[in-house]
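Worked problem 6 (solution included).
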Amino acid sequence: MVASESAGSTVRVLPPADRTQHTIASLFALALIGQSLAQFVYYARLPADERVVHFTQNALPVSSSSFALASTLGFLPALFSALSLLGLRQRTAPFIASAARVAAPAGLAFALPALFTWQLGQQRPIAYLICLTLFGFCLERLLRICIAELIVIAGGKSVRRPLAFAYDVGARVTPILAPLVVVLAGVGYATYTGFFTIRHHRQILTSAFDLGIFDNLMYNTIKGRFFQSPVMFGPGHHNSLSTHAEYAMVLFAPLYALAPRAETLLLLQSVFLGGAVIPLYLFARTMLSRWPAVVLVLAYVLFAPLHGANFYDFHWLPLGVFFYFWLFYGIASRKTWLSVLMIVLLFALREDIAVGLAFLGVFLFVTGLRVRFGVTLALAAAVWFVIDKFVIMPWAGPWWFDSMYNELFADGKTGYGNVVKTLLSNPFYALSTFVRGPKLTYALHMLAPLVLLPIRRLPFLLLLVPGSVFTLMTTGYWPTLSIAFQYTTHWVPFLFATTAMSLFVIREGHQGRVRLLAVLGALSVTLLSHSFNFGAVLQRDSFVGGFGRVSFELPDAARKRYADMLSVVGKIPREASVVSTETLNPHISARKEAYVFRYDVGPVDFVFLSDGEVSGDLRNTLRDKFSREKYGLFAKGEREFFLFKRGYESPETEAALQHLGIHLRVTPEAP
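Solution. The predicted structure is:
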């Protein structure tokens, strides 16, 4: 095959022996492309409800008779090309072949309506994710064909001058425009998620576990009561280091002190996750040119597993993404001071982050990227994790998190040591606990939107071990296998680091420019599809954050309800002790003594509740509490909110108790 120029354009000239075969193949390809486009147009024009039931229930649309017409019209490109070939013969054949190569990606257009029907993705996630993976691979290869042909066409005389002008303009604009896009993406993400997480909170949809816990911890921190949270433990002296070693809360206390309430934590989380685009871009720029780095940044802000972590209350683990990206940049740019600072901050953020840092060190050593630094990091992280997890945290008190690995306990004995014993002595049994449907679904949620780039090189698997340990290896706690919770952020930093490195390897390989553009194009489509199905930005009808669906609207009824609740909360002194229901707790947790009814809290100054949460066990708890101690109705909202004060007398108390269905026990008088 050779290339020649004709009429100012470049076309391929085939040897006579292959000309007929390639022409027939091109006509066949055009026929398939035409059919694919016809199906795309047909499905896109269907009413939304018909399209949904068609893809989810295999119900034929009412307008299915028009499908035959669309299919017939799909053959028109191939028919037109065949007629042109008959009329112009050899001169047309190279142009037909070229058109087929340029239009090759359109051969997958038929799949787009299904991939962007979120009901299909949410009702049949494993099928959707497998199809998305296959679609991404096929699209990448078809894009290679298309881009390679476009490069050949771009070599023609008729397009050289316009392209040269476009390249010159791009070279001048890109240094300013690319960083601007990154900054706008970060600001946009932080603003969007900050606004809607606070709105979600103001709909009284957050809970004591976990937003109330962290709000209560931070308030006690600024009051000098470090690592104390009555919300988490109930009455008595307990140390939160027994649950997670989150020393960093002390560093963030001055920021929280500016506005000590739960909304501050929600905004802080969004700002740090949005701000992470800056170090991610800088890290990617050490390996890639500007626009591929921008694509990676946009993929990050649209990554659905990140959204779930952001919208489920507040946790320190997601903030690690910000510091990880700065660490990656520090390592790649050989800024040792920056790397050490980020490592220290990550150590202070949470104890299990040290596992990720240890594997990062092993990766740097095995790949030879930073041998001495990698060995030092791996050893330091391993030592710190052992001290933190097996010395400091047990000293602070017992906790239950190791039960998440209960099927891996050797001989029925609990503890992380017995989990390790099972992994070493009985790997086949351990593997049997990994190979399960929900775990495959979870792994595909992480990898399919990124067209499996994080696992295309064997050494990259080392960086995915920490996320696997804290999610896929668990056996007794389903939230670790859901992208709606904070555990996804064990994966996120390493997913995007390995994606950037994989793009670098592709760019440096054979036909690097073509392959890089092709994989970026495929990644863009698969990421958009997955984000549309499961993310919080492109489609907001079904997004789940934490244990429930997130509502992005704040109707007047919800606004009035929140104002009504605040009118009652405003009557509680800041220094008073309060026990409340699970969903009301985050609105009163910024105080030293805030409790929830799951514990026997003993005497408290105020009882705050909503009649919508009073039933069953809680009603019995309230009956016992009010029978033992005298409480009177101190304040009441317009409808559902009730505030009782210890030792207070009010004529409305009896009516309020009757409304709540609380019938007090009558203690007989002593003879």
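Discussion: The two ends are 113 Å apart (CA to CA).
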